[in-house]
Write a structure and sequence with these properties.
single chain, mainly alpha
Length: 176
């Protein structure tokens, strides 16, 4: 009988952080997912529905302000599903089923930035991807509402804050 070497368990949180789409952000977390990532996310959504139907996952030893893997994944999933609109923290906390302050503190403890900063980084990442894929077919005025920005000024401000360059300069350098 051969014994297998012991492996460290893979948690949902560590699996999410290992996805390449989530590795390029300053927040240490989630760009647009590939086909395999979409399949994994569909699996996570199915697991969320099953767990929601049959009850919460097994009890985990987590500090009071920490989010469980399940809560963290539900928060990420909710943000991804509602990326195009600014969802208040209270609504997000209700969807994840935790108090708002615990969600905000747990999110910062988990990935190192606020929910709003994470959302802005994800939006900027999508703008970058749209700039690459759509090229000159889409104007900045067309991209801004698709990504959840009220106008091009808000898009440009977030883009500058995260990348240090305006959207027009980025597109000129990228597409020129």
């Amino acid at each position: 009988m051969r014994l297998r070497p012991a492996r460290t368990p893979i948690t949902a949180r560590s699996a999410l952080k290992a996805l390449p789409e989530y590795s390029n952000l300053k927040c240490r977390a989630p760009s647009l997912p590939s086909v395999m990532v979409r399949a994994d996310m569909m699996g996570l959504r199915l697991a969320r529905q099953i767990i929601g139907f049959y009850g919460p996952p097994y009890a985990q030893d987590t500090p009071a302000m920490d989010l469980s893997d399940f809560q963290f994944l539900r928060a990420i999933d909710f943000i991804e599903d509602n990326l195009m609109r600014d969802v208040p923290l209270a609504e997000m906390a209700r969807a994840v089923d935790v108090p708002p302050q615990r969600l905000a503190d747990g999110f910062v403890a988990e990935i190192g930035c606020s929910i709003d900063s994470f959302r802005a980084e994800r939006r900027v990442g999508i703008v970058q991807q749209l700039s690459r894929s759509a090229g000159r077919d889409m104007t900045i005025g067309q991209i801004a509402p698709k990504v959840g920005f009220a106008d091009t000024a808000a898009l440009d401000a977030d883009f500058r804050a995260h990348l240090g360059v305006s959207v027009n300069n980025y597109r000129a350098g990228r597409l020129g």
